[in-house]
Amino acid sequence: MSAQQSQGIQTLLEAEKAAAKIVQEARQYRVQKLKDARSEATKEIEEYKKAKEAEFKKFEASHAGTTSEAQAAIDKDTEVKLQSISDSYNSHKNEVVQKLLDRVTQVKPELHKNLKKVQS
User: Fold this and answer.
1) How far, in Å, CA of 95 to CA of 69, rounded?
2) Residue-level pLDDT at 114
3) What is the rounded CA–CA span in Å between residue 8 and residue 68?
4) How many domains does the chain contain in total?
5) Does the model's pTM come out above 0.70?
6) Does pLDDT of 87 surpass 70?
């Protein structure tokens, strides 16, 4: 009976070793699959990034002329407005200076309204 128990134990130990080997292989397979998946995802990301960069460069090139045209139009409009402001300044500066001088030189000395109330 001891031989049968010994043989049964030996069979169980062999089965346990085989199971451990299968588990180890499964772990290695899983690790390899994860590595493969990561490298594949990295490749896809790089391809997607390259495609989007190319698309952006194409868009940028097609709209580059529009930007320079818009900038030229804005510069022209700015020059027109600056000229208008300058013309307005030149045409009204004498009037403004004269009004300021009139106000400064025409002083009517009188008491402040608050001072009048206190004295009453």
Assistant:
1) 40
2) 82
3) 88
4) 1
5) no
6) yes
Nearest Cα to Cα of residue 41 among 33, 29, 31 = 33
Q: Domain range holding 30?
A: 2-106
Whole-angstrom CA distances from 96 to 40, 45, 101, 106, 110 are: 76, 68, 9, 15, 26
Give the pLDDT confidence of 30-66 residue by residue, as tens digits. Answer: 999 999 999 999 999 999 999 999 999 998 888 776 7
**119 within domain boundaries:** no
Say whether pLDDT at 83 is over 80: yes
